[in-house]
Amino acid sequence: xxxxxxxxxxxxxxxxxxxxxxxxxxxxxxxxxxxxxxxxxxxxxxxxxxxxxxxxxxxxxxxxxxxxxxxxxxxxxxxxxxxxxxxxxxxxxxxxxxxxxxxxx
Length: 105
Fold this sequence. Notes:
By secondary structure, this protein is mainly alpha-helical. It is built from five helices and two strands, in the order E-E-H-H-H-H-H.
């Protein structure tokens, strides 16, 4: 999967390698019941996830997203980031040696 990116002030910015805190935040967000949530609260959380995932708050922050990202791109960006985080995580897990398999051979 291609690494998602955002254009801020004409520069292509890619997210930092995902950390556990990012993984947990995305999982928590995915599990939330949004049936009674206000749109502003939902969008704020989505923007916070983008900021967290990119891990460069001096460049990718609420203000820069407000300035350079179209509103219609916020939710798709969060989905791309989550899919990318999952892909990165499971690719590394698939490459990890399996102790049970090694001893069975």
